[in-house]
Amino acid sequence: MIDYHPGKANMVADALSRKGKMVVDDSRNKEHESLIELKKMGLRLSMGPEGSILVQVKIRSMLRDKVLEAQLADKGVGKIKEQINRGIEIPFQILSEGLVAMGKQIYLPKNKLLKEEILNEAYESRFTTHLGSTKMYRDLKEYYWWLNIKREIAEYVSRCGIC
Fold first, then answer.
1. pLDDT value for 24
2. Is residue 80 in some structural domain?
3. Is the pTM value of this prediction over 0.85?
4. Residue 107 pLDDT > 80, yes or no?
5. Number of domains in the chain
6. Domain that holds residue 136
7. How many Å apart are CA 144 and CA 105, to the nearest integer?
8. Within the chain, how many helices (H) and strands (E) appear?
């Protein structure tokens, strides 16, 4: 068992009783470098209580922008927006960003590349595993709606060599 006596009680200053000036200076430099890196990323920084740093990050999905772009190019979506503006009662609505949605689900026009990208993201991203068509359908139907969505998901999953 080791008895430790801080400060002057020790005849020879050991590592535990020395002041950590270099360590403190090093940590301040690293902290300053980290702040510079965070600012370079375009993050909003503010000081919180007791000197803590608050970082605000705004994340925006690129898929959402691509869907909006596809909707703007689609004639069918134009007709849907026209009907909504005329006051005709249809199951679609226009969200604040200009996206057409059916309830809470974003409407995906007939755009094979975009559908394929969304299916790839849902099926093969780093955060998911090969889910199977039922689970994938349940996950995607929360966010997206398109004609024959269930059939297209089943066809996509059936092409997987792993499953």
1. 47
2. yes
3. no
4. yes
5. 2
6. 62-158
7. 5
8. 6, 6
Instruction: List the one residue out of 139, 163, 133 whose CA is nearest residue 151.
Output: 133
Please tell me the distance from the alpha carbon of residue 43 to that of residue 124, in angstroms, as a whole number: 29
Q: Could you tell me if 34 and 99 lie in one domain? A: no
Q: Is 121 helix (H, G, I), strand (E, B) or coil?
A: helix
Same domain, 143 and 76: yes
* Dist. CA 87–CA 85, nearest whole Å: 5
Residue 101: which residues within 8 A CB-CB, separation 6 or more?
92, 93, 94, 95, 107, 145
Mean pLDDT of 39-45: 75
Q: Are residue 68 and residue 37 in the same domain, yes or no?
A: no
Q: Is the pLDDT of residue 22 over 60?
A: no
Contacts of 78 by beta carbon, 8 Å cutoff, 6+ apart: none
Domain contains 133: yes
With respect to residue 163, please indicate whether it lies within any of the assigned structural domains: no
**58-104 pLDDT per residue, tens:** 777 788 899 999 999 999 999 999 999 999 999 999 998 899 999 99
d(CA 112, CA 162): 23
